[in-house]
């Protein structure tokens, strides 16, 4: 069984994914970290050196490699991963997907308190610019995220709630 957590940057995919994997005794895989190890470069370096179009191709290749490698795993995808190529169909064909639907105001607050340098799409932006980037990007991405098998609405999404929904779906 593969469980994919999807949603915007800062929605809690990595945080909740780790907790869920521990409860299920599954391997936890963070697709951003997996891609960084595979390419030997950070996400920020990949954006800078390859550009976003090539980054998306490398991200898809990493997604396929994870699916080949693991039988039981909780996988936190990159924020944009489900929204390129046929990645969302691919995810749904290979496991259960969970969309963490957290309000933009909450995400903005969390991201402002985190390290923006590791998130190339946000680096150098002010809080107001981040907020409007998130509103615009979520508007474009929601059509993909909404194809998830399970949708959880925040701001406070707990691991118990996620586990119950997974058992019932
Ligand atoms: N339920 C929560 N309540 C409050 N803060 C949270 C919650 N979940 C995550 N955070 C905080 O929000 C920030 C982003 O969380 P996290 O890294 O898990 O998000 P993500 O979806 O994996 O983001 P990315 O796509 O950038 O990897 C972190 O600083 C984390 O501590
Ligand atoms: O939302 C996005 O497009 C991104 C999210 C991160 O997880 C990384 O994959 C990268 O910073 C791009
Ligand atoms: Mg993450």
Short recap of the structure:
This protein has 169 residues and is an alpha/beta fold. Helix content is 56%, strand content 14%. It contains seven helices and five strands; from the N terminus they run E-H-E-H-H-E-H-E-H-H-E-H.
Q: Span between N and C termini?
A: 13 Å
Q: Helix/strand/pairing class, anyone?
A: alpha/beta
CATH architecture: 3-Layer(aba) Sandwich
The count of helical stretches stands at 7
Pathway: Metabolic intermediate biosynthesis; chorismate biosynthesis; chorismate from D-erythrose 4-phosphate and phosphoenolpyruvate: step 5/7
Catalytic activity: shikimate + ATP = 3-phosphoshikimate + ADP + H(+)
Binding site for ATP: 10-15, 119
GO molecular function: shikimate kinase activity
Keywords, separated by commas or semicolons:
169 residues, alpha/beta, Rossmann fold, binds adenosine-5'-triphosphate, binds (3R,4S,5R)-3,4,5-trihydroxycyclohex-1-ENE-1-carboxylic acid, binds magnesium ion, Shikimate kinase, shikimate kinase activity, nucleotide-binding, Shikimate_kinase/TSH1, amino-acid biosynthesis
What does this structure look like?
The protein has 169 residues and is an alpha/beta fold. It has a single domain, classed as Rossmann fold (3-Layer(aba) Sandwich). Helix content is 56%, strand content 14%. The chain contains seven helices and five strands, in the order E-H-E-H-H-E-H-E-H-H-E-H. The protein has helices spanning 13-24, 31-39, 43-69, 87-94, 104-112, 127-145, 159-168, and strands at 2-6, 27-30, 73-76, 96-101, 150-153. The protein has a five-stranded parallel beta sheet, with helices on both faces. The protein is globular, with a radius of gyration of 15 Å. The chain starts with a strand and ends with a helix. The model has no long low-confidence stretch (mean pLDDT 96). The site of (3R,4S,5R)-3,4,5-trihydroxycyclohex-1-ENE-1-carboxylic acid has 9 residues, from loops. It catalyses: shikimate + ATP = 3-phosphoshikimate + ADP + H(+). Belongs to the shikimate kinase family. GO terms for molecular function: shikimate kinase activity.
